[in-house]
Design a protein that fits this description.
globular, Neuraminidase, single chain, four-stranded antiparallel beta sheet, 2% helix, 339 residues, 1 helix, mainly beta
Length: 339
C-alpha cells in the first residue's frame, strides 16, 4: 500500500518470500499490514509479492509511521523503528509524551486500541504457524489469544482487527481459501472474548481486508481485492447487503458517520482522500510524489492523522479535515527528545 516503511492501522496472512540479498545499503519492506511479508527485506522497490502494496524504505520509520487516535481522542498509537525494531508507541495528539508500550510478543501487526483505551488487539504470527489475534490488557500486562486458526484448513490466519464502537465485538480478516494457491480472506466478526465467530462477507467475491465499523455500529466498510483492483465496499450489517463505493484502500469513518477517509491508490502513489459515505463527493487532500497513507479521523472530526514520507523519513502528520494546515507531529517530539 505505499512507498514508506511503517501504525495503526492499522492488514496478517502467511506467505512465502524469496531470500533476497541487498547489493547496497537501501532495502525495502512491506508496511506492517499483516500480509506476512512485513518483516522481510527486499533489494528493489516496488510491490510486495504477497499483498501488492507499495514497499517502503527500510528504516524510514525512525520517527513514526502509520498512526491511529484512541477512541477518547486523547492519545495516538503509532509505529516506530527508532530502536532498530518496529515497536508500538503512544503519544498525545500534539506529539508530546511519547511512551513505548511493553508488549509480550515481538513483531506485531495491525495493533488497535479498544474504545476505552485499556486493551490492545493485534495479530501475531509465530514461526511455522498461522497468524492469530491476541488481546493485551494494559492494566495487567498480559495477553490472551482470541482466535485459533490451527484447526482450520484455510491457508491464511487472522489479521486487521477492528473494535466495534461499544467494544463488545471485533471485526477482522481471516483466511478462507483451502488450496495452497488460494490465499484469500473474508471479513469475520466475533465477540471480544473470541466467541460467536461469523463470516460476514462470504457472498462477496475476492480477497477481503481492512474492516472499519461505522460510528453507530450498523455498517462495516472494507476493501475487496481482485487482481490489481482495490475497491471499497460498505456492508449493512442488518441486511448483509454490500455496496461497492469506489477504488481505494484503508477506509475509516468520520465520527458523525457522514464521510470516509481512505487511501487513493494508483501508479505507485498513495494519497489521502475523503468522500461522502455513499462514495460521492470525493476530494484528494494530499499532493506530491511521496506516500501519504493510513488516514484516520480525530474524535472531534476536525482533523485527520496520517503517515507521510515527504521529508525523507516517515512521520506522523495531522491536517484539518479539508486538507489544510498539514504539519508533522513526531519530528518535533523526536527532536525535542534528542532522538
Amino acid at each position: 500500500m505505499r512507498n514508506l516503511s511503517i501504525p495503526i492501522a492499522l492488514l496478517s496472512l502467511a506467505f512465502t518470500c524469496p531470500d533476497l540479498r541487498s547489493q547496497d545499503s537501501t532495502q525495502y519492506v512491506c508496511p506492517p499490514c499483516g500480509c506476512g511479508e512485513c518483516d522481510k527485506k527486499h533489494d528493489e522497490p516496488g510491490k510486495c509479492p504477497a499483498c501488492s502494496m507499495g514497499m517502503l524504505r527500510y528504516g524510514s520509520f525512525r520517527n513514526g509511521g502509520p498512526a491511529r487516535p484512541s477512541s477518547d481522542g486523547k492519545r495516538i498509537a503509532f509505529w516506530s523503528d527508532r530502536t532498530g525494531d518496529r515497536q508500538l508507541y503512544l503519544m498525545n495528539t500534539d506529539g508530546s509524551e511519547q511512551e513505548l508500550l511493553e508488549l509480550p510478543h515481538g513483531f506485531l501487526r495491525t495493533p488497535t486500541l479498544s474504545p476505552d483505551g485499556m486493551q490492545l488487539i493485534y495479530a501475531y504470527q509465530a514461526a511455522s504457524a498461522k497468524a492469530e489475534l491476541f488481546i493485551f490488557e494494559r492494566e495487567t500486562g498480559k495477553a490472551e489469544r482470541v482466535t485459533d486458526n490451527s484447526k482450520t484448513s484455510a491457508m491464511l490466519g487472522s489479521s486487521m482487527p477492528a473494535w466495534s464502537p461499544d467494544g463488545t465485538r471485533i471485526a477482522f480478516a481471516s483466511g478462507v481459501g483451502k488450496d495452497s494457491n488460494e490465499r484469500r480472506a473474508n471479513i469475520f466478526a466475533m465477540n471480544a472474548d473470541g466467541s460467536e465467530r461469523v463470516n460476514l462477507s462470504a457472498e462477496v467475491a475476492g480477497h477481503h481486508v481492512e474492516p472499519a465499523w461505522s460510528p453507530d455500529g450498523d455498517k462495516l466498510a472494507f476493501v475487496v481485492r481482485v487482481g490489481s483492483e482495490r475497491d471499497i465496499y460498505v456492508m449493512d450489517l442488518r441486511s448483509g447487503e454490500a455496496t461497492q463505493l469506489r477504488q481505494g484502500e484503508v477506509p475509516n469513518w468520520s465520527p458523525n458517520g457522514k464521510q470516509l477517509t481512505f487511501e487513493i491508490t494508483g501508479e505507485g502513489q498513495y494519497h489521502v482522500g475523503i468522500m461522502a459515505a455513499d462514495g460521492s463527493d470525493m476530494k484528494q487532500l494530499t499532493q506530491g510524489e511521496t506516500m501519504n497513507i493510513h488516514p484516520h479521523w480525530t474524535r472531534d472530526g476536525k482533523s485527520i492523522i496520517f503517515a507521510s514520507e515527504r521529508d525523507g523519513l516517515a512521520e506522523v502528520w495531522i491536517m484539518n479535515a479539508d486538507g489544510s494546515d498539514q504539519r508533522r507531529l513526531t519530528a518535533q517530539a523526536s527532536a525535542a527528545a534528542g532522538n
